[in-house]
UniProtKB/TrEMBL annotation:
Residues 120-240 form the FAD/NAD(P)-binding domain. Transmembrane segments: none annotated. Pfam families: BLH_phosphatase (PF04273), Pyr_redox_2 (PF07992). It comes from Pseudomonas lundensis. This is TIGR01244 family protein. InterPro entries: BLH_phosphatase-like, FAD/NAD-bd_sf, FAD/NAD-binding_dom, Prot-tyrosine_phosphatase-like, Sulphide_quinone_reductase. Residues 8-110 form the Beta-lactamase hydrolase-like protein phosphatase-like domain. NCBIfam families: TIGR01244 family sulfur transferase.
């Protein structure tokens, strides 16, 4: 039976004639519905009537529909009936006829009206930093490429500056622009979100019911902030002293809290990895402490940093200089401490703390200010996809950024299941690798570009100074400039606060590949 099944997409498969004994197998394989496209009495006595199959299917909890198609081929009426049935039945669905061919062609007719008329050379899933940048870089290499960018949001954000906003050093209004204004000329913006992959047909299914066909696919929808995993958090964000620099509308509230706090307890949190910009949780603490020190109130503020992990920073070389600032700010570090619950009005937070023996205890702490970094995960459409790895991230070759089982699919950005830091700087290097390798694939050439895991985390240890942490796979230091990267510098602050935002809007999103091994114009 299993060899008889042909998968058309994530929701629909076809097969030749089935019998009642096959229904149990189909249910065990996860199918939820069966469609019979073979008319009764078409074959000999060995062909069961659809009513017998229907009764047996329903007894197993399977939905069943009968949409018979004559051997002369499907009619428009057949296609309309099939379209109605597809909208009603739970998925995944198996349809059958004598060989499966009529079922396959009927499905094609029934869904043709939902498919984008013109196929694209390349479809890009996601219009964030990765999606816009790789699209622009590809069009610089070949302006004739037909590229569609699937992105539901009307606004595009420069998120690395939100830490500065929370520290009173940047205007939040300068971190957002209209998606239409940053979309590369020559690309088609499809304002929808991804609902499923159908890699066997080189198709993606969208939230608006349409399908897009492609020759190559680039997957870069970013990650999800799982606020809901912390009990009580969503109800109190943006009030009662609870904030986060990980959201556009909340970063200004962080600064309001920092600016007005004159004493009390300030808690900062960091969830389990991976998260985007692993240094951002502690950067919020450093900028807050620097302000309180300059205002002469730091001694009146009890600062505590609760980390789910066992180390202050994942690259050991940067831990000693960071510890000097932790000590200078008199901040308390609590390792293996994960925020699990918040009561905003009651100014109370609960943490699950793991001791040296692996025992977990729940500890209650009061606060005047609570800066939360939420747990983070791949989008649901990625996690439930056959293209995901065992951890739910998009499966990607760490060097070529190509999917190991579908060579026509590439990925970059935060969604990748690669062991690099999830930063905009990582995207800057990944763009070149994906663009070059994808063009090589289209030409039938070898994929020559390799990503070394580069990521950058400008650690804002005080207002006016940054430790510029640049590193690759395995924590290897990869400094851009011939300076000691562990030293806090004013020049690095200028880079973080002035140059990089300008370069993001005017360079990276326009396909200019500066500071990479493949410079653009």
């Amino acid at each position: 039976m299993e060899q008889n099944i042909k998968r058309i997409d994530a929701c629909f498969s076809v097969a030749g004639q089935i019998g009642q004994s096959d229904l149990q197998t189909l249910a065990g394989q996860g199918f939820r519905s069966v469609i019979c496209n073979r008319p009764d009495h078409e074959g000999g006595p060995e062909q069961p009537e659809h009513t017998a199959l229907r009764d047996a299917a329903q007894a197993l909890g399977l939905s069943f529909a009968y949409v018979p198609v004559a051997t002369t081929g499907a009619t428009a009426q057949d296609a309309e009936q099939m379209r109605t049935v597809l909208a009603q039945l739970p998925t995944p669905i198996l349809a059958f006829c004598r060989t499966g061919n009529r079922s396959s062609k009927l499905y094609e007719l029934a869904t043709r009206g939902t498919r984008e008329a013109a196929p694209y050379d390349i479809v890009v899933i996601g219009g964030g930093s990765a999606g816009i940048s790789v699209c622009a870089s590809l069009l610089k290499r070949d302006a004739a490429l037909r590229i569609a960018v699937v992105e539901p949001s009307a606004e595009h954000y420069y998120q690395p500056a939100w830490t500065l906003v929370g520290g009173g050093a940047y205007d939040v209004k300068n971190t957002v622009r209209a998606t239409a204004d940053v979309m590369p000329k020559g690309a088609t913006w499809v304002k929808a979100s991804l609902s499923a992959f159908a890699p066997e047909r080189n198709v993606v299914l969208l939230s608006d019911g349409k399908e897009l066909t492609y020759q190559q696919l680039i997957v870069c929808p970013g990650l999800e902030l799982a606020w809901e995993k912390i009990e009580g958090l969503e109800e109190t964000l943006g009030q009662h002293g609870v904030t986060s620099n990980y959201r556009y509308d909340l970063a200004p509230y962080t600064w309001e809290l920092v600016r007005t706090l004159r004493g009390g307890t300030a808690l900062f949190t960091q969830p389990p990895m991976p998260i985007k910009c692993a240094g951002a949780p502690q950067k919020a603490m450093y900028l807050a402490c620097d302000h309180w020190r300059k205002q002469g109130v730091l001694d009146a503020v009890a600062v505590e940093f609760n980390l789910s992990g066992a180390a202050l920073f994942g690259v050991p070389a940067f831990v000693p200089p960071l510890m000097k600032y932790v000590e200078a700010y008199n901040a308390t570090l609590v390792f293996q401490s994960t925020l699990v619950k918040v009561d905003g009005p009651g100014k109370t937070a609960w943490f699950d703390v793991t001791d040296a023996d692996g025992n977990v205890s729940r500890q209650q702490k009061t606060f005047d200010m609570l800066h939360v970094v939420p747990p983070q995960q791949a989008p649901d459409v990625i996690r439930r996809s056959p293209l995901a790895d065992s951890a739910g991230w998009f499966e990607t070759d760490p060097a070529t950024l190509q999917h190991p089982r579908h060579p026509e699919i590439f990925a970059l950005g935060d969604v990748c299941g690669t062991p690099n830091a999830k930063t905009a700087a990582a995207v800057r290097k990944q763009v070149v690798v994906v663009a070059e390798n994808l063009i090589a694939l289209r030409k039938g050439a070898a994929l020559s570009k390799r990503y070394d895991g580069y990521g950058s985390c400008p650690l804002t240890v005080e207002n006016g100074k940054v430790i510029l942490a640049e590193f690759g796979y395995g924590g290897k230091l990869l400094p851009t400039f011939p300076l000691d990267p562990t030293v806090a510098r004013q020049s690095a602050w200028f880079l973080k606060a002035s140059f990089l935002p300008w370069f993001y809007w005017q360079g990276m999103l326009k396909g200019r590949e500066w500071f990479t091994d493949c410079s653009g114009n």
